[in-house]
Amino acid sequence: MVDDADRRLLRQLQAAPEDSVADLAERAGMTHSTFIRRLERLRKAGVVKAIREEVDWQALGYSVEVSLRVTLDKTEPRAFDEFIAAAREVPEVISIGTFLGRVDARLLVIARDLPDYQRIYREHILTLPHMTDIEALMQVATIKDAQSVPL
Amino acid sequence: MIELDDIDRQLVLALCKDATQSAGALGRELGLSQPATWRRIKRLKDAGVFGPRRVDLNLEALGFGVTVFLGVKLATKGRVSLEDFERAVRAIPEVQTVQHVLGLFDYRLRVVAQDLPDFERVLRRRIMTLPGVGNVEANVVLSEELLPGPL
Predict the structure, then answer these.
(1) Are residues B87 and B135 in the same domain?
(2) What ipTM was estimated for this complex?
(3) CB contact (8 A) between residue B100 and residue A136
(4) Among partner residues B48, B137, B151, which is closest to A56 by beta-carbon distance?
(5) Which of A5, A44, A48, A50 has the fewest other C-beta atoms within 10 Å?
(6) Do B35 and B99 share a domain, yes or no?
(7) How much is the pLDDT for A149?
(8) Are B106 and B68 in a shared domain?
(9) Do B81 and B40 sit in the same domain of this protein?
(10) What's the total number of domains in chain B?
(11) pTM of the entire structure?
(12) Which candidate, A57, A56, A114, places its Cα nearest to that of B102?
C-alpha cells in the first residue's frame, strides 16, 4: 500500500511540514502534481492522519508542564474508563495516555505558574477517581522533539 | 503576551485539527473575509502561538506497531555526562522525543519500534549503551489522546 515513493514523500513531509509543496516535491524527487496526488491518496487512506499546528503553551503564558504518572485501582473494573472520562473534563490536561507497564496512565498538565499548578493539582487532579498512586515529573527542557519515525 | 478573542480561539482550534486549510475556507466558517482571516493567522504565528507543525502518521500502517515511553535515570551525574548523554540519545532515529525532567527520572524518551523484538533490539543496542545510562523503566503505550487544552 505504501511504496518507496510514498516513503520518500513522508520522509520529506515529516522533516519539514512547514515547507512549501514545491520544495518538498523537489526534495522527494517528484513533480509538484505527483506529490499532491500522492499526499491526497495517503490522507484518504488514513496513512497521514493529520497535518496540524500545535499550541506552544509557553507563548500563551503557561510556563509549567508536568507529566503525572498514575497508578489505578485495578480491582475496580471501570477504573480506566471513569478515570479517563473525568481527566478529560480538566481543561489544563492536554494529553492522556494509557500504558502497559508499571504505570497505568499519564496525564500531561499545564499551568501558568507553580501556585496555579498547586491549585489544579489539589482541586482537579487529586479528586480524579480510582487513583492509587501519582508520581510527578516536571519538564525542564525538551532535548529532542521530532515526532518523526525512521522510514 | 498575546491576548486571544473568541475568533482567535476558534482559529487556533481549527488549525490544530488541520493546518492545511486555506484562510478563505477558515474565514467562510467563521464569517470572516479571507484577508481578515489571513491577518489573524499571521498575528497568531508571529506571536509564537504555534510550535513546530505536526504530521500525524498511522504508525501501524507504516510498520511501527509499538510506541514505548522510557524513564531513564543516569548512573553518574555531572555536566559532562549530561551533555554526552543528550548528544548520543538525540542521534538515535527510533527516539522521537527526549525530555529532561525533574523527579523519579532524569529523562523521558519516546521510542517507536516495529514490534516488541525490535524494541528489545533498540533498548539493548542503542539505549542501554548510552553514556552514563543507569536505571531504565519502560511503559508500552496502549492509547494516546490529545486534548484542546485551556483555550
Answers:
(1) yes
(2) 0.88
(3) no
(4) B48
(5) A44
(6) no
(7) 87
(8) yes
(9) no
(10) 2
(11) 0.89
(12) A114
How large is the average pLDDT for residues B50-55? 94
Residues 9-48 of chain A whose Cβ lies under 8 A from any Cβ of chain B: 10, 13-14, 17-18, 45-48
pLDDT of A27-44, one tens digit each?
Answer: 999 999 999 999 999 999
A131-145 and B95-102 strand pairing? antiparallel
CB B44 within 8 A of CB B11: yes
Q: What domains does chain A contain, in order, with CATH numbers?
A: 4-44 (1.10.10), 57-138 (3.30.70.920)
Higher pLDDT, B44 or B81: B44
Residue of A nearest to B113 (CA): A149
Q: Is residue B64 located within the same domain as residue B42?
A: no
| A114 in reach of chain B (CB within 8 A) | no
CA distance to B36, B68, B144, per residue, from B119 (Å): 49, 8, 19
CATH number assigned to the domain comprising residue B34: 1.10.10.10
Find the mean pLDDT for residues B109-136: 94
Is-contact A79 A130, C-beta < 8 A?
Answer: yes
Tell whether B129 is covered by a domain.
yes
| Model confidence at B78: pLDDT above 80 | no
A75 touches chain B (CB under 8 A): no
The secondary structure of residue B50, as a DSSP letter, is: B
Tell me which residue in B49, B64, B141 faces A55 most closely, judged by beta carbons: B49
CATH of the domain at B134: 3.30.70.920
Q: Which three cell numbers stand for residue A103?
A: 504505570
Q: Which residues in chain B touch residue A92, judged by CB atoms under 8 angstroms apart? A: 149-150
B129 and B70 within one domain: yes
**pLDDT given at position A1:** 79
**pLDDT tens for residues B19-32?**
999 999 999 999 99
